[in-house]
Write a structure and sequence with these properties.
Elements: H1 4-12, E1 17-20, E2 37-43, E3 53-54, H2 59-64, E4 76-77, E5 83-84, H3 92-96, E6 100-107, H4 115-124, H5 136-143, E7 152-157, E8 171-174, H6 177-182, H7 197-216, H8 221-224, H9 233-247, E9 252-253, E10 258-259, E11 265-272, H10 281-305, E12 312-317, E13 338-343, E14 350-353, E15 371-372, H11 373-384, H12 390-393
Parallel strand pairs: 2-11, 2-12, 6-14, 6-15, 7-8, 7-11
Antiparallel strand pairs: 1-8, 3-5, 4-5, 6-13, 9-10, 12-13
Helix pairs in contact: 1-7, 9-10
């Protein structure tokens, strides 16, 4: 017998929608400011932090990476010690306007170097020896509900994995964004459910998906946005995200044939794949960083155009960094820490965290942990949305001064 999960996948995946989770009504101690949008960008596979934010003045950097290291004269210098990969030129306007914060040395105590387990830790905000069954954003939305006027708690674009929204968030995954933008109908045949309570429940969930999808579908957003978007898969994901932001401000009610006010979504997650660079890293990593940087620049442009740049926070995350030294295949193996980027009109730009201590590698050639990633999450919850982070994360974590008052 086809169970509910399989039915949902069969019924919606072909239309570009994976699933929608339950909306749980829980009283919140404070009223979150969900008018402030959070955009998560997952750098899937484990981004090489040392070739992203480069300690170019450290003599040991070149010694650890004799063939894949970025030459000093190619680095985009941020100060006398640190610079960006040359493929990240598109981020420089954000840096110069102090709208880009770089938090260095991010990981967690006793890092796990398994892709599956480490991303589970990042998604659930657990300790390395702790197992939680819900994502950190899902727990936050359970404890601090998003207003019912919103189209959805969150949207995941380009992936069926719910990640930080798993098991509790009222969220839609757009597996195939382009098809989602074309299609307009899901399953409507209530007659199929007669005498079948399980199927009736599934169809009720399907109709909930349809209602949310109607409010997300950008009927006129393409005409509204003048911002050009970069080519390629990640550029398409960014374009879809920006179209959703634009259209959920005044979404289309097709049944009434009119446009009514919308309140958007609280969070959007995008995924850029390909960062597991065990071999032939230089060209692959350059291409990925260029896609990412151009996508970030396009988001800034579109959000500015919509007057949403000051009310949007963009944050990267990845399951781990890479080892400090290159391997024998002109690549890097799984490591510990990496820098993460936070951007937006309300960001206090600059370098934060702990610079890579290349002279203090552990016995496996990995960098020491400088900032617990849950401090980044706590900062988002406390300073961006105004939510008490302790019930979500289980304890207090130091907050980062990356946002303007």
């Amino acid at each position: 017998m086809m169970n509910r999960r399989h039915f949902l996948r069969a019924g919606t995946a072909s239309l570009g929608i994976a699933a929608i989770g339950p909306a749980l009504a829980t009283a919140a101690a404070r009223t979150p400011d969900y008018a402030r949008l959070l955009i998560l960008v997952e750098l899937k596979g484990g981004n090489d932090g040392l070739n992203t934010v480069i300690p170019y003045a450290a003599p040991r950097y070149a010694r650890l990476r004799p063939t894949i290291g970025i030459a000093r004269d190619r680095v985009i210098a941020l100060d006398g010690q640190t610079g960006l990969h040359p493929a990240m030129q598109a981020l420089m306007p954000l840096w110069q306007q102090r709208e880009l914060a770089i938090v260095q040395g991010v990981s967690y105590p006793s890092p796990n170097l398994s892709h599956f387990r480490s991303i589970e830790i990042w998604n659930t905000a657990s300790a390395s020896n702790q197992y939680l069954d819900s994502g950190w954003l899902a727990r936050s939305f359970q404890k601090n509900p998003v207003p019912p006027s919103f189209a959805s708690d969150a949207v995941v674009i380009g992936s069926a994995e719910m990640g930080p929204l798993a098991n509790g968030a009222h969220a839609i995954a757009l597996v195939n964004p382009q098809q989602f933008l074309r299609d307009s109908n899901l399953i409507h045949s209530v007659d199929m459910a007669r005498g079948n309570p399980e199927l009736a429940h599934v169809l009720e969930v399907e109709h909930e998906i349809q209602r949310a999808a109607d409010r997300l579908r950008p009927a006129n957003a393409q005409a509204m946005l003048r911002t050009p978007f970069p080519p390629g898969n990640f550029g398409n994901l960014v374009k879809t995200a920006m179209q959703i932001v634009a259209d959920t401000q005044t979404y289309s009610n097709r049944r009434a044939n009119q446009r009514v006010p919308g309140q958007g979504v609280a969070a959007i997650r995008l995924t850029l794949n390909g960062f597991d660079t065990h071999h032939d890293q230089p060209g692959r990593h350059q291409n990925l960083l260029e896609q990412f940087s151009q996508g970030m620049a396009a988001m800034r442009s579109a959000l500015t155009e919509m007057n949403r740049w000051d009310s949007t926070l963009i944050m990267t995350y990845s399951e781990f960094g890479r080892r400090a030294g290159e391997n024998d295949s002109r690549g890097t193996d799984h490591g510990t820490v990496a820098p993460h980027l936070i951007a937006g009109g309300a960001v206090r730009g600059g370098l934060y965290g702990v610079p890579p201590a290349l002279d203090w590698l552990d016995g496996n050639g990995n960098l020491p942990v400088g900032v617990d990633f849950r401090s980044v999450y706590a900062t988002v919850l406390e300073h961006w949305w105004g939510i008490d982070s302790r019930p979500v994360l289980g304890q207090r974590f130091p907050l980062l001064p990356v946002l303007r008052a």
